[in-house]
Amino acid sequence: MTETESTVYSSYDVVVLGAGPVGENVADRTRAAGLTTAVVESELVGGECSYWACMPSKALLRPVIAQADARRLPGLAPAVQGPLGTAAVLARRDEYTSHWKDDGQIRWLDGIGADLYRGHGRLTGPRTVTVGDKVLTARHAVAVCTGTRAVLPGLPGLDTVKPWTSREATSAKAAPGRLIVVGGGVVATEMATAWQALGSRVTLLVRGKGLLNRMEPFAGELVAEALTEAGVDVRTGTSVQSVARENGTVVAVTDSGDRIEADEILFATGRAPRTDDIGLDTVGLEPGSWLDVDDSLRVTGTDWLYGVGDVNHRALLTHQGKYQARIAGAAIAARASGTDVQADPWGAHTATADHCAVPQVVFTDPEAAAVGLSLAEAEQAGHRVRAVDYDLAGVAGAGLYGEGYRGRARMVVDLEREILLGVTFVGPGVGELIHSATVAVAGEVPISRLWHAVPSYPTISEVWLRLLETFRDS
Which helix (H) or strand (E) holds 205? Predict the structure, then answer.
């Protein structure tokens, strides 16, 4: 940027790049500590989660799951056999995204006393961020909270197709008659679940052997089974070789030579950091790279730059990014005041949970929820462990969810310390179980103490007792 007489200079204690949930939480914590804070955002305040990810996707999925639950209940099933009201579901989704307007989020920022700068912010040197003709300097810290973007593969014909990414999938104004979903992870399975129920004929193309490969294998197996029963054409071990749009129709050609036709194609094949055009090169970092950070979220080799949320690639989850933001905000405030930073594990300035207690829920039918290490991850890390499994259908509370309940639970036990390293649940309603598991894993609660955490009857939380009994008796 060429500095002119019109350039406006402003100084703050902290400058936050990105006003999604992560950036908002950093700003909230630094303002609570009395630090002056500027927030820079080029799109909508509230970020990906509010407008194109968590909120719209769950608004689409909630009616789907509610209908599936109702259909399992005798007496209620006949009342919900018809199709979902797609127009009403989409209208409710629009309400959840505030119709893609961020007035409410702006009022919240105003309420905490943070200054908002609209526009594309770039680092232009240490502790300096430029937004248009405005130069913001940070006395203590710049926090990069710019998140990630969808990655599209370099396929022949892709530029002619106008493919969907997660953004188009969660904001579409109508259900396509036929939809190809490429991928086997969370976005792919959730969007296949939603659009199949909302009237699309969905073909799910998965390059690997199964779905949700970052969870226990049975999670992907149960979800794939349910998707197939719902009408999704699930094809594993299948790669897309080329795509084209012929007379308005998308044609995808697979590695086996199959031609699959659809109205739209969604690629849910990975994420990349939004760091390619934020001036990392001006401070000696590689543009477009993930930011390497310590456990206080400070970028390696700096004493003023923080990388918080998806940009550090530790856990690409909104709730985990917000957790990091609380840690980073507290660390920035401590360093600004000259207070000692608590660097010990589980300290106020240490994001220890990123390493061992990351929870996630996949809102498919059935839901899949997990925290901590899978059995394979625990074994690869060198722990001496035992997997303890239980059929969730055998829990009295599961029967209240209706006929034909299918689900499974697993806890991974560290046999040397007799604590839990990981827990996975798959089945209707299990999303609400995962926080109890997170407390057990993060708190390193001994199994001997878990015996005294009595689950209420009849709830599916009784699975905790059954898992402990299975561990004791095996």
Answer: strand 201-206
- Tens digit of each residue's pLDDT (9 = 90 or more) over 63-107: 999 999 999 999 999 999 889 999 999 999 999 999 999 999 999
Q: Please state, in angstroms and rounded to a whole number, the distance separating the CA atoms of residues 282 and 439.
A: 42
239, pLDDT greater than 90: yes
- Domain co-membership, 18 together with 137: yes
Reported as type and span, the H/E element at residue 467 is helix 463-473
Distance CA 349, CA 307 (A): 14
- Whose tokens are 């969660």? That residue is 170
Instruction: List all residues 6 or more positions away from 181 whose beta carbon is below 8 Å from its beta carbon.
Output: 188, 191, 192, 195, 202, 203, 204, 205, 265, 266, 268
CB neighbourhood size of 159 (10 A) = 10
Confidence of residue 5 (pLDDT cuts 50, 70, 90): low
Q: 338: alpha, beta or left, given left = phi > 0 and alpha = psi -120 to 50?
A: left
Whichever domain contains 174, its CATH number is 3.50.50.60
Whether residues 171 and 213 fall in one domain: yes
* 424: nearest Cα among 432, 414, 439, 412: 412
Which of these three, 269, 291, 316, is where a domain ends? 269
Could you tell me the CATH number of the domain that includes residue 394? 3.30.390.30
Asked if the peptide bond before residue 428 counts as cis, ω within 30 degrees of 0, the response is no
- Alpha carbon distances (Å) from 428 to 69, 205, 369, 399, 425: 7, 24, 10, 11, 10
Longest dimension (CA), the chain: 78
Alpha-carbon span 248 to 262, nearest angstrom:
9
SS3 content of the chain, % helix, strand, coil (to 5): 35, 25, 35
Q: Please tell me the distance from the alpha carbon of residue 69 to that of residue 56, in angstroms, as a whole number.
A: 20
For 332, residues 6+ apart whose C-beta sits below 8 A from its C-beta are 14, 26, 29, 30, 33, 35, 140, 141, 143, 306
Averaged pLDDT, 402-411: 94
Beta bridge partners, 360, equal 370
Q: What CA–CA distance (Å, rounded) separates 80 from 71?
A: 6
Rounded to whole angstroms, the Cα distance separating 362 from 366 reads: 9
- % of the chain exceeding 70 in pLDDT: 99
The C-alpha atoms of residue 261 and residue 37 are separated, in whole angstroms, by 51
